[in-house]
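Before relying on records like the one below, remember that each one covers exactly one chain. Contacts with other chains, cofactors or solvent are not represented anywhere in the record.
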Amino acid sequence: MAFKGNFQHLIEQILVPIASKLNSQRHVSAVKNAFILSFPLTMAGSLMVLINSVFLSPDGFMFKLLQFGKIFPGIVEFQVIFAPVVKGSADIFSILIVFLVARNLAKILNGDDLLTGLTAISVYFIIYPDYFNNDGVNYITTQYTGAQGLFVAILVGLLVGELMSKLSDSKKLEIKMPEQVPPAVARSFKVLIPIIITTVFFSIINYFIRLVAPGGIHELVYSLLQTPLTKMSQSLLSVLVLATISQLLWFMGIHGPNTIAAVRDTMFAEAGNANLLHFSANNTAWGAPYPITYSGLSTAFTEYGGSGCTLGLIIALLIFSKNKESRSIAKLSLGPGLFNINEMVIFGLPIVLNPIYMIPFILTPIVNILIGYMATVVFKIIPPVVLGIPWTTPGPLMPFLGTGGNILALFIGFVCLAVSVLIYSPFVIAANKAKVLEEENN
C-alpha cells in the first residue's frame, strides 16, 4: 500500500503539472479540442463499424457465435446500409482534423477561424498525392483521408493556423472594401492575400518535397518510419519494439497498426503459416515451431479493446474517474470496446497528444506481451497462440480461441485485462487532478 501511495504521489507530482502546462499550450490545445469536437462523428462511424464488423460480417464474432447467417439468410447484405456512415466519418477523419486544428489555433490567435480552417483543407489537398488516371477518368486515393493521414493533417493544421494568423495581422496585406459591400464578401477580401501567400507557399514546399519523394510528404513520412522497421528480425525484442512503435505512432496521431502492417506481416507471415500447418497436422498448438509471433503475443494478449489494451482504460475510468466528461466517454466506449473498436477513446478522451495517458498506453502492451511470453515460452503453461481469430473477438477470448480452446489461456487473458486496469488506474486518478488544475487555471 505504501508503494502504491508513493507511486501515485510521484505521478501526480511529475505528470499533473506537465499535463496542465501542455494542455494550456496553444498548439496542444488546438489539437486536443479538434479531436474532442470530432468525437460525435467518430462515435457514429465506430458504431457502424461495430454493427457491420461484429453482427453483419461473416467473420464477425457475434455473427459466428449466434449463427446469424442461418437464422437470417441474406443479413450480410444489410452492411450496405451502414457502410456509408463510415465514409462520412472515419474515412475523412484527416480532413475534419486539419480543418478543426487550423480553426482552433486561429481562434486562439484572434484570426479568421473559418477561412483559416478552409485554407488548411485547401493546403492539405495541395500536398496530397496526385490523381491517378484510369480509362480517361481521374481518381484520388482515400489512403490518407482517414486515420493514416492524421500526422500530416495535424502538422498542416498547425502550420496554416500560425501562418494565416500572422499574415492576417499585417495591415499591409489587408484589402479593405467599401462599407456597402456585404460582410461575407468584405471578410473574404480581408484575408485574400494571406490565403494566396499561404497556398502558394505550400505549393512551392510540395514541389521540393516531391523531388525527394515523388509520392509527396505522406509517402516521405511513411517511408522514413518503415525503413528502420524492415531491418528487425523475429524475436521477442522485435515484437516489443513493433508494439511500442505502434503505440507511439498512435500517440502522435498516426495510425500505428496500419503503418507497421507491411513490415509486421512480412516478418511474421512465414512463422504464422508454419504454426497453422503444425496445428492442422497435429490438431494441437503444443509444440508449434514458432511460439514467438506478433499475433501470438501482441494481438492475443494486448489488444483488448483495441490498441493499448484500452478496455482496461475504460474499466479504470468507470471505477476511478470523477470527471463527468471522461466517464460519459467511457460508458459510450464500453460496447464498441468489448469488440476492440477504440477510436472513441483514442480521439474522444483523447489519448492522442495526452501526456498523462501516453505512459500507460505504451506500458500496458509491453507488460502484457511479457506475460504472454512467460506463459507460452518460459513456463510453457499454455500452448502458443497459433490460430487466426477475428479482430472483433472480445479480448480475453483471443488466447483461449487462438490456442484451440485451452482453459488456462482464457485465465491468462483475464489476468492481462486485470493488469491493464491496474496500470491505467493511477493515471486516471492523475488525469482527474490535472483536469481540476486546468479548470482552476482557466
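The mean pLDDT is 85.
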